[in-house]
Amino acid sequence: MTSVMRSVVTGVGGYLPDRVVTNDDLATRVDTSDEWIRERTGIHQRHQAADDQPTSDLAVAAARRALEAAGRKPEDVDLIVVATTTPDLTFPATAAIVQRKLGCPIGIAFDVQAVCSGFVYALSVADGFVARGRANCALVIGAETMTRLMDWSDRGTCVLFGDGAGAVVVEPRAGEGGTTDRGLLGFALRADGTKQDLLFVDGGVSTGQIGHLRMQGNQVFRHAVVNISEAIRAAADDAGITVASVDWFIPHQANQRILEGVAKRVGIDEKKVISTVAQHANTSAASIPLALYQGLQDGRVKPGQLLLLEAMGGGLTWGACVLRL
Ligand code: ACO
């Protein structure tokens, strides 16, 4: 086997704001019920950032835990990629704000905007730096305050989302080029801009208003299972592994029915699915690293295991990643 440079995840962290909002809490604001939300989505509750807590604060808390797990210090970090659709400010990038708050030295810092697929996209971007020797210690963060994008009179969307952040440290390690190497082994990324109307925010800087999240939920649902399944197979091919051989399936946490539908379609045993949707709801770009963190914390996910990540979000964007922890 030839020697290759791999981008290896060496630490994982997560952070959820203290405030918990239950389905019953939401039922006092819009015409919905705990029963409807649980049955259609699997969601029981979500976390909501404090009024004075911007996305960067959530990102920093998750990043500190990831750095500690990797045995790294803020001084070591030379690349920060934040996947977010809810940045603190239009500019600077949330990644640059995180760099300042963590006290990292001058390096590379920017955001990636691919909505719920952002973390998978950001991992791929970081791989491009780390595996080419252009970064030695990267922080890849998914961080969101999605509750700030909600139209609280729209029961079709406001019950689905929550706030949170997850982070990983990615470092270069020599591998042999095979599937037993640790690191990011395969990707498949996709976007279809013609499906914009299914899931979007009806505002932005050049429209003069912040806007709210709008979604044709049943249409998104229909695309999700088919699109994600194709990307999963492509990422598995890219990595040279079979889908059945993965130890853990760590999907974007949008809806329990989508998680189960995708797992069934691609032939993944339901016992291998890490689901946090009941407790976290949909935290957009944060949901995959938060689920990974949860799996590590409760002892299910272990170093050396083969993981399959996938996501789909506004754009539409979607994608999958195979990695050995
Ligand atoms: N409580 C009670 N009733 C509701 C609620 C609610 N919170 N929301 C909608 N309903 C009603 C609708 O008004 C409709 O009523 P009607 O039949 O009288 O018109 C009925 O429930 C059915 O509505 P649907 O939208 O068809 O319900 P569906 O079974 O599709 O479930 C859901 C909706 C949960 C949103 C589902 O479609 C879904 O999960 N979609 C995918 C979401 C997703 O994955 N998003 C992608 C990621 S998000 C991102 O990228 C930012």
Give the neighbour order of strands across the main sheet: 1-7-6-4-5
Extract low-pLDDT stretches: none
Task: Return the structural class.
Answer: alpha/beta
CATH architecture annotation name of the largest domain: 3-Layer(aba) Sandwich
Helix-strand sequence: EEHHEHEHEHEHEEEEHEHHHEE
Tally of separate domains: 2
Query: What is the count of DSSP helices, taking H or I runs of 4+ residues?
Result: 10
What small ligands are held by the chains? acetyl coenzyme *A
Task: Tell me, briefly, the overall form.
Answer: globular
In words, what does this structure look like?
This protein has 325 residues and is an alpha/beta fold. It has two domains: 4-175, 3-Layer(aba) Sandwich (Peroxisomal Thiolase, Chain A, domain 1); 183-324, Thiolase/Chalcone synthase (Peroxisomal Thiolase, Chain A, domain 1). It has ten helices and 13 strands. It has helices at 23-27, 34-41, 55-70, 94-102, 118-130, 155-158, 217-239, 256-266, 277-280, 287-297, and strands at 4-15, 19-22, 45-48, 79-83, 108-112, 138-145, 163-175, 183-191, 199-201, 213-215, 248-251, 306-313, 317-324. The strands form four sheets. It has a five-stranded mixed sheet with strand order 1-7-6-4-5, with helices on both faces. The chain has a four-stranded mixed sheet with strand order 8-13-12-11. Strands 2-3 form a two-stranded antiparallel sheet. The longest helix is centred in the C-terminal third of the chain and has 23 residues, at 217-239. The radius of gyration is 18 Å and the shape is globular. The two termini are 20 Å apart. The model has no long low-confidence stretch (mean pLDDT 97). Bound molecules: acetyl coenzyme *A. Acetyl coenzyme *A (ACO) binds next to helix 2, helix 6, helix 7 and strand 12.
